[in-house]
Structure formats: C-alpha cells, structure tokens
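Box 4.2: Ligand-aware structure prediction
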Amino acid sequence: MSESDPLEQRVSDLLQRLTLAEKVSLCAGKSLFKTQGVPRLGIAPMKMTDGPRGIAFHSALHRCTAFPSGIAQAASWNESLLQVYGEAVGDEASSVGARVLLGPAINITRTPLNGRTFEYLSEDPYLNARLAVPIIRGIQQRGVAACVKHLAVNNQETNRVRLDAKVSEQALEESYLPAFKAAVETGGAWSVMAAYNALNGFPCCESEYLLQHKLRNEWGFRGFVVSDWFAARRTSSAQACLRAGLNLEMPGKGSRLKARNLRNAVAAGQLTEAELDGRVADLLRVMALTGHLDNTPSAGRRNTPAHQQLARTMAEESFTLLKNRDAVLPLAPRCGLRIALLGPKLASRNCFPLWGGSAGVWPPYEVTPLAGMRRENKGRYTFVRSAEEADVAVVFAGLSHRPGLDSEGVDRKALALPGAQDALIRKTAAVNPNTVVVLLCGAPVAMPWLNEVAAVMMAWYPGVEGGSAIARVLFGDAEPGGRLPVTFPARLADSPAHRSLRTFPGENNVVHYDEACFVGYRYADYAGIAPLFPFGHGLTYTRFAFSDLLCELGADDEVLRISCQLTNTGQRAGSEVAQLYIGSPVESCPPQALKGFVKVRLAPGERRRLDFEVPLDQLAHYDEISASWVRTAGDYRVHVGRSSRDVQLSAAISLDDW
Ligand code: BGC
C-alpha cells in the first residue's frame, strides 16, 4: 500500500467526495456484523464474520466447514498447510458475502485456564508469529481481509471487559506483541481488532501506544482497527478513540463513535476533519482491497470436498501423541482385534453451534469418533462393548464448549477433566492394560491416571472430519503429526500466572503480569519444574535420529547458520518437527527460547539436511532503561531437538565480537 498507488488515489478521490455526515457514519457499525454504507456513492454496508476455525454466526444460515480449532492448527507446526487453510476459510467467508474475517486469534496462552485457549495458537511468541502469517496471507489471497485479534493482552476471559492488565514493556515487546507485529509487517494484515481490556491504564480501543505508536508508526499498518464487539463503550470519548487510532466501532448501536458524537467533536475542535479523514481513508483502503468498493460479487465456495478433505488433513497433522507405551498405537492391523470404545466424547459433536462463543461453526455434518471408527474400520477390527473382553480399550474423554470449559466469556476453574471422566479412565485401565485415552479438548488438562494407561493422544477440537481423522490415526492409516504448542503443566501452581490472585484473575479489576516473559516453558525451564508434557512434545509412529550439528556465523556476521542431519531410522514414513532453541547468556532472559523449526516428512531410511537461519537481531533482548533492543556478547547455547526438553544436539557459539 504505497502513496503513489492508484489505490491511494482512488481512496483520496473518494474521501473528497464524502460529506462530513457520510464520513462519520462509516466509523460505527449498522448492525451486529455490518458497517453502514453510503448509498449516494454506491458504497454498500460491509459484512464481517467470525472466526478462527471457520464461519461462525453466518453459518447458522449457510452451513460451513468447521476446521480444527486454533490450538489444533498450531499443533500442526505446519506453515504451508495453514496457508492452504487460510485460503479455504477465506473462500468460505467470501461465500457468505463477508469482506472481513474476524481471525486469526493470536493472543498468547498465558494461562491454561483461559476459556479461549482452544481458539488461540500458542504460548510461544515465535511459533505464534510464524503460524499467524501464513493464515493471514491465505485469507487475504482470497480477497478477504483478515482481522487479527485481540490487540493486546486479552489473555483471560474473567472480567475481560473491565480488566486493566499491567504488563511491563519488556514483556510486551518480547512476548505479547511479536505475533501482531509479524501479522502486520510480514503477513500484511488489512485489519486488527482492539481488545476489550485496558493495557497499563488505557482501554485498548483508545490506546495511542498500541494503535498509533506500535501498529502504525512502528509496524507500518495501513488498514483499519475495529473495536471488539461493544468494547468501545468503556472508552472516554469518540475523539479519544479516533485520535488513538480506532477506525470503526462494532457493532455500533448506541455507540461511542456514533455520528452525533463525532460531528460534535469536529464542531468543538476536539477532532480535526483531517484526523477523521485519516481514519476513514484506512477503511476505504480495505474496502478497495477486498473488492467491496466495486461490489465485486462473492467468489468463494464453502463445504467443498476439498475443504472437508483439508479439515481431515489438518486434524491428522494436529493430533499429538503424548504417550505410547510399548507402541500400543497404531492398533495392530490384525483381523479380529477386539476394541472397546468408551467415554463421553465417543459420540459427541465438537463444533458447538450453541455454546462457546464466536468460534462456533454450524457445519453441515460432523463425523463423531464413533462414526469415524465405524467408517474407517473396513472390516479389520471387532468392536466389543466392554473393556474387559477387549484387546484394547479406547476412552474418548475431554472438555466441551459449555460455559466454564472451552468457552468464550468464562475461564475454567481447574485443570481437571469434568464429571466422572478420570474415574472412568482409571476403571478402564484397571481391567484393560492396553487402555488408550483420546482427549478432545482445546487446552491442557490434568491426567492423574497417566501412569495407568498405555497411550494418550490429544485430538483437540478436530473439526467436521475429526472422527475419521482419529480413526485413521489410531488404525495407522495416517500419522499423528502434532507437537504441543503449549506446555501441559503438572499442577496449576506450576503455571506462573497462578501464583496469586494479583496475577490471575486480578484484584479490583487489575491483573499484574508479574512473571513478565516467563510464560509456559520459559518459566518451567527457569524454575526447574518438570511439566506433565513439555512444549514441543509429540511422539511419532517411527523413529528419527539427529546428527552432524553445525553452527556458524554467516559471512556478513548478521545471521547464525545452523544445520544438522535428520534420518528416519524407523520402519514407517513419518514427520518430525525439528526444533531449534537458543539460550542467551543474559541472566534476566529465559534459559532458552524457540528460534526456528522445520517439519519434515521422511520415508523409512531417508535422510535430510536441515538448515536454520537465525538473524542475530532475534537474539537481542528488550532493555527497558534504554527502551531499545540490546545485543549482548557472550556464549549462546544452541539446542536442536524434538521438544523444549528433548534436546538431541547442542553446541555453543561465542558472539564476543558481536
Ligand atoms: C469476541 C471477538 C469476536 C466478536 C464478534 C467478541 O465477543 O471477543 O473475538 O470476533 O465478539 O463476534
């Protein structure tokens, strides 16, 4: 989007033709998911739709594909797949006439109890950024604006509309903002949603620091910022919001940015017309980019066989095998193997049209685990109905989108699985040593029975084809491709946000991020805590060997070049996610941080050289005193491995001359 662009000329031409009344009308919505139009100039109301796993509200009328939820997307660690997903969901949005898709949702998983953990991607800023970018690019390639949400630090649902989050500048720079920065700078996002909460005393919808200083001045954002729904109500005035950088208030009824307020502000000299023009121009620009100004008809399609196939592939790529004693999985493909299928999630649907908030999707159908097991069986296995008489018992357990579980507006109270699920798993394991637990949920849960069962697989919320994907992976027709994008803590107290009421859920409407950047594995590593399952963990059906680590400074001294060999030493084809962590000599920094990863699929015996490039800027840390990024000389530790705790190769590199 450059100034000399014909698009910019078009925007400024249109701006000159708009009256003041028309301009102010563009800054507030008309209805729940539509902006106001300007009929005189042929500008129609612009439609927006949720959300981060498929079309939400509008799928009530036009059924749409439910894809695996955000955390499952992240568990795939697969950028190219997520670009294809972005294109598909962009098409689905366009097929319901939407110009803006309200997603991806990229807030950091600060606490495993956040009700929206299932929607978000990861606890790690680097992974978050790498995965958000292809989703945004995919959506926008289909002519739909991605609306990246929620800027910023909307990390809990409890009290979300009144909360003021106190976060240090270092934590913002190093943890909470990098994915938004990448979304704008690298992903080229056309739209951003400002969060409900306040940040350091200012409601995000009127935070000049966020919307002007970071977003526009530093990252070069030229699209529009929309308030989260009804979030602008808590702001001080229309002019403060516009000045700070908010372009549009949704849904707009009885709104802060209503026409009268803005007209009065201009009349009183509290807002110049030039300032208003700037905000309106941002909106017009995105309307032009999405074809809205030309009334381009919707081109996308929904529920195509390709989208349904993609949903299944994404599910398989996301399934994370946490434990697999004696290779009980995949189930032996011998005729007549008796399998017992149990548990409350066996025949349950997960796409939640009625519960869970703005990430729900009404799909045309959904393959439950039971339906999938039957469909994919192909005569190979016998389903018995009790665990005692079975060779293998599979228990389907997990959460749901009922308020208080994986749902918007409320956080969970505890890590435990609800109801009698733990008891059911224990009872099953007591009578059948080959008990496999498949968890359908969008966040870490406690597993007090872990030592008693043979295998555990996270299936997350796997979308319309989830049941088929689960069956294919259990039967060995597909591989479990996922790795944890969040730490699974052994106890809630091991999660640093949960050390006091001050840090979660906050007191007197204020929450303090005392742990700063020490979130997830960064805290576990620093405090020497053994997680239940570490960040990055996930087993495969084959075996991989890492060797030949090389680590050197690039010729220009600005890039660290790291390479190693990866060999599939097992009997099956499979994928490994090789993860690169770097430890800094700076004592105040977390012991190590993810700085690279690559997902590779190798045939048995196949060997591949893996290359990582880390720009040295990525090793800098944010110094609050000088308010700048600082590079520190010293010995940096380089680890390549299968998870944050499963290091396969290590080296040290001295950056003394840095
Ligand atoms: C959610 C947003 C969503 C919006 C519109 C809000 O409650 O926080 O993520 O996009 O509603 O449905």
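In the box above, the bound molecule is beta-D-glucopyranose. The first helix runs from residue 6 to 17.
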